[in-house]
Amino acid sequence: MELRECKRCLLLQSGDEDNHKMVQQYIAKIRPEEKCDEELYQKRLEICGSCDNLISGTCIKCGCYVEFRAAFRLKHCPDTKNKKW
Questions:
Q1: In the prediction, which pLDDT does 4 show?
Q2: What count of other Cβ atoms lies within 10 Å of the Cβ of residue 69?
Q3: Labelling 70: which of 4, 42, 51, 57 has CA 20 to 30 A away?
């Protein structure tokens, strides 16, 4: 079976359960004062999910897992020419 990159998929949607679990563990360790609230987090993931820079849960602009980056209150979209959040 041929594996293909999943355009506009977050980790769990792309079938990458191992990395999804790892990212969720990292998110759980973020200090509360550094973490954004759940509503903002979900909004960011929704925006990233419709972005052409997302491939298999990874932002091609910065190389991060978007689910991790989006969890930080003070982080922002890494697309310097077209910030989405």
A1: 57
A2: 17
A3: 4
